[in-house]
Fold this sequence. Notes:
This protein is of the alpha+beta class. It is built from three helices and two strands; from the N terminus they run ααββα. The chain has helices at residues 8-18, 34-37, 63-69; strands spanning 48-50, 56-59. Strands 1-2 form a two-stranded antiparallel ribbon.
Amino acid sequence: MIGGISTEEQYVKTVQKYKYPWLLTAEINDENKLWEKYCVSGGGGGQFLMDNKGKIIAINPSLEDIKRILPEE
């Protein structure tokens, strides 16, 4: 999930720019209250690596964390 996105247009541009090879979601205008749901104070954003069931398996992971975790998933 990416933060700091306030419009669908910004989201599309970000996804196109970085070409992430994984599913990327964004909380646009706090419409789903995800920051509250996952107890992230201030709604300032963050990066969350989630499994295919929606369980958070890493918060703000480094590249090394991602490389270590993804082969396990």
